């Protein structure tokens, strides 16, 4: 449902430095995001978790909206996304995303019933400022789909590509920091990852390791872009050899039959203080 909310610039904060295509975080989506939507398609089961957390909100702000993954249908959604390459990948059925950053939202206080952001907070230049802005413009729940850095070691990729996991560990904010930045009543709940998950973040391939041998799949997971290309190729070759020799299956084969995986994926939800 297209948003009818006007872009009223009533609150202006200093923006973080932005890259050529407008990306405001630490990853340059003008380089790595051109085929993002080919591999990062919203999974309907994860989407339902996000939508349920929004409650009965009619107006929803989606911050760092990217190509539109997990935006709810049948609601009045306003999307903001600084990366031009990501905005260009949004389907016509969704509203046109506004070119602004989380740290400087151009809306009056308490404009929206709810706000959401998915796989985005770890890329904001000024996390605390972005969280404060979301709280400022939102009357009700704020919903964040992210990964808990304390749980990343549950995933076998730590053995074959340790720098990828350590990079994610540095980038994803701790749950305590999100709670402090959002305030109010905060809950953090695990989100089971389906075996055939259509959203290709690293852990989505927990039982399909061959998928991470595909360059496009790795490119859609921004942590890989922070690893030296030669090192990344070494990691890929290591994983390919482990799969080919049967080593991976000897260690992790039961995951190929496991319907869900409880890794680092979590849903953070906060309601404003009474």
TrEMBL record:
Q: Which domain of life is it from?
A: Bacteria
Matching Pfam families: Methyltransf_11
Residue ranges constituting the Methyltransferase type domain according to the UniProt record: 63-139
Q: What is this protein called?
A: Methyltransferase type 11 domain-containing protein
Q: Which GO terms describe its molecular function?
A: S-adenosylmethionine-dependent methyltransferase activity
InterPro entries named in the record: Methyltransf_11, SAM-dependent_MTases_sf
Q: Which organism is it from?
A: Microbacterium faecale
């Amino acid at each position: 449902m297209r948003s009818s909310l006007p872009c009223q610039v009533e609150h202006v904060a200093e923006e973080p430095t932005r890259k050529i295509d407008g990306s405001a975080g630490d990853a340059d989506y003008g380089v790595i995001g051109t085929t993002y939507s080919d591999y990062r398609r919203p999974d309907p089961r994860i989407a339902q978790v996000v939508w349920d957390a929004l409650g009965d909100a009619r107006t929803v702000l989606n911050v760092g909206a990217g190509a539109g993954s997990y935006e709810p249908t049948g609601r009045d959604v306003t999307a903001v996304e600084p990366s031009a390459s990501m905005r260009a990948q949004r389907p016509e059925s969704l509203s046109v995303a506004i070119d602004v950053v989380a740290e400087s939202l151009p809306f009056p206080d308490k404009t929206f019933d709810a706000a959401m952001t998915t796989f985005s907070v770890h890329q904001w230049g000024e996390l605390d400022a972005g969280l404060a802005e979301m709280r400022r413009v939102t009357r009700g729940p704020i919903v964040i789909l992210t990964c808990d850095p304390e749980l990343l070691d549950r995933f076998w990729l730590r053995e074959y590509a340790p720098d990828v996991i350590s990079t994610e560990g540095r980038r994803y904010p701790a749950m305590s920091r999100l709670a402090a930045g959002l305030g109010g009543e905060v809950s953090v709940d695990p989100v089971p990852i389906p075996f055939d998950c259509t959203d290709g973040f690293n852990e989505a391939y927990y039982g399909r390791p061959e998928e991470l041998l595909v360059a496009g799949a790795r490119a859609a997971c921004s942590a890989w872009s922070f690893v030296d290309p030669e090192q990344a190729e070494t990691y890929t070759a290591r994983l390919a050899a482990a799969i080919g020799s049967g080593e991976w299956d000897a260690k992790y084969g039961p995951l190929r039959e496991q319907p869900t995986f409880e890794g680092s994926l979590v849903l953070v939800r906060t309601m404003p203080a009474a």
